[in-house]
């Protein structure tokens, strides 16, 4: 039997790893970071995504980085999306053969295919 774990919403991480250990209520966190208590409630209940704005506020408050919060959100979104869409995407999208894909920049990001090569491209 193959059991897979459910994706973890960043709101669960916020609640279990930050709020509970510090004894923070949703109301107090909301007040301290300048957002509505409804926003925090929706996040910790997995009903709302962590936006850039929220990530920056949480990062400042907890001494983390906004990237930490946004990566949690992207990982969650990707896991949920893959579970819902992967079979459909495999059926509907062809694979381009013979193309290695767009080159990566030194930062590890894919360069847009229409972008001219620059000194920032890998191997340049």
UniProtKB/TrEMBL annotation:
Show the InterPro entries listed in the entry. Answer: Cro/C1-type_HTH, Lambda_DNA-bd_dom_sf, Toxin_antidote_HigA
Q: Region Disordered: which residues?
A: 94-124
Q: Where is the HTH cro/C1-type domain?
A: 15-69
Q: Which GO terms describe its molecular function?
A: DNA binding
Which SMART domains does the annotation name? HTH_XRE
Protein keywords:
DNA-binding
Question: One Pfam match, by short name?
Answer: HTH_3
Q: What SUPFAM superfamilies does its record include?
A: lambda repressor-like DNA-binding domains
NCBIfam families referenced in this protein's UniProt entry, alphabetically: antidote_HigA
Q: What is this protein called?
A: Addiction module antidote protein, HigA family
State the organism of origin: Fraserbacteria sp. (strain RBG_16_55_9)
